[in-house]
Design brief:
- The protein is mainly alpha-helical and 295 residues long.
- The chain has helices spanning 41-49, 64-67, 82-95, 102-107, 129-138, 151-164, 176-183, 186-191, 194-202, 215-220, 222-233, 261-270, 272-281, and strands at residues 31-33, 118-120, 143-148, 210-214.
- It has a 4-stranded parallel sheet with strand order 2-1-3-4, sandwiched between helices.
- The longest helix is centred in the first third of the chain and has 14 residues, at 82-95.
- It is globular.
- The relative contact order is 0.17.
Length: 295
C-alpha cells in the first residue's frame, strides 16, 4: 500500500487543529515496540498481556502507521471482555478513514484506563523519518522499544517464516543465487539493518524514552530481560503475572530452513558491514556478532 503523508488535520468535533498538537491527559499509547521481525516481539506481547499493570490490545500488530490497520487477520481476534470489544469497534472505524488520524488513533487506547498500554508492530521499523517525527511530536511521552537480533540469524528466521506461511514461493535454500534474490528484496532489506532503524528513530525520540533490547538476552536470560522491559515501561516487575513464565514463547517450534555452512558464510558476508556497525553502534551482545562469522 503506497501513500504519502495522509495525516488528518481536523479534530473529531470538525474544527481545524494543528497536526502537531499533543493530546491532553493520559491519551494514546504509552509505548511502541517497532520490531524487529523475528526478534521476540510475540514473546514481548505475551509477557505484557499477562502482567497486571498492562492492558494490551486484542490485536498484537495494528499496522496502523504502515497499512491503516487494513490487514488480513487469519486467526480469530481476542474478545474476552467489553474493553476488547470496544477497541475492535473503534479500530474498525479508524481504519475506514483513508488518512492517518493521530487523535482517533490515540483514542484506541482509552480502554486501558489507568493501566499501561501500547502496540507491537514490527513493520514500524520501516517507517520514514517524516512519519516517525509526527508520531513522536504528537505523543511526546511515548516510549519506544526495539528488539535487535543478529542480522544473519534474523533474516534466516524471517525467510523460514515466509516459506512456512507461503508468503513467498518456496526456494532452494542451498542455492546461493536464490538466497541472494530473497535477501535483496526491498522489503527484506528495509527490515535487515538494525543500526539504520535505531538511528532513524533515535533522531526523534528522547534517549531516556528509547531502549534497544537483544534477542540474545531472550535466549540466555529471559527473566532478566522481562524485568528490564517492565522497569523501563513503568511496571512493577515483582507483581505475579499469572502462569506465564519468562521463557514462554509460542513461536519457538517453527521449523527453520536448512542452513548450510556455505550459505551461512555467504549471508554473513552479505551483512559483514552491518554486523560491524551494530557492534559499534548498538553495543551489548551485538559486540559479539562479527566474531561469530570470523570478522
Amino acid at each position: 500500500m503506497k501513500w504519502g503523508w495522509p495525516f488528518s488535520a481536523r479534530r473529531s468535533d470538525g474544527r481545524h487543529k494543528n497536526r502537531n498538537e499533543a493530546p491532553a491527559g493520559n491519551v494514546g499509547p504509552d509505548f511502541l515496540c517497532i520490531g524487529a521481525h523475528k526478534a521476540g516481539t510475540t514473546w514481548l506481547y505475551q509477557q505484557l498481556d499477562s502482567h497486571p499493570d498492562f492492558w494490551m490490545p486484542p490485536v498484537k500488530e495494528l499496522h496502523y502507521f504502515d497499512q491503516l490497520a487494513r490487514v488480513h487477520r487469519a486467526s480469530a481476534l481476542r474478545c474476552r471482555d467489553e474493553r476488547d470489544l470496544r477497541f475492535l469497534e473503534m479500530l474498525k472505524t479508524v481504519s475506514a478513514v483513508p488518512t492517518i488520524d493521530l487523535e482517533n488513533y490515540g483514542r484506541l487506547f482509552e480502554p486501558k484506563a489507568s493501566l499501561l498500554s501500547g502496540e507491537i508492530s514490527p513493520n514500524y521499523s520501516t517507517l520514514s523519518s517524516e512519519v516517525i517525527q509526527q508520531i513522536v511530536r504528537y505523543f511526546p511521552n511515548l516510549k519506544v522499544i526495539f528488539l535487535a537480533r543478529d542480522p544473519v540469524e534474523r533474516v534466516w528466521s524471517h525467510l523460514s517464516m515466509e516459506v512456512h506461511y507461503r508468503q513467498i514461493e518456496a526456494f532452494d535454500p542451498t542455492n546461493i543465487d536464490e538466497v541472494n534474490r530473497n535477501l535483496s528484496r526491498r522489503g527484506m532489506l528495509l527490515r535487515s539493518y538494525p543500526s539504520a532503524v535505531v538511528a532513524r528513530w533515535k533522531r526523534y525520540v528522547h534517549p531516556e524514552q528509547f531502549r534497544v533490547y537483544f534477542f540474545d538476552d531472550l535466549k540466555s536470560n529471559p527473566a532478566g530481560l522481562r524485568r528490564s522491559v517492565f522497569r523501563f515501561l513503568g511496571a512493577d516487575p515483582d507483581k505475579p503475572g499469572g502462569r506465564m513464565t519468562a521463557d514462554y514463547n509460542s513461536w519457538t517450534g517453527m521449523e527453520k530452513l536448512p542452513l548450510t555452512d556455505d550459505v551461512r558464510s555467504h549471508v554473513a558476508k552479505f551483512f559483514k558491514k552491518e554486523l560491524k556497525t551494530c557492534a559499534t553502534e548498538l553495543g551489548g551482545p551485538a559486540k559479539d556478532w562479527p566474531a561469530r562469522y570470523g570478522f
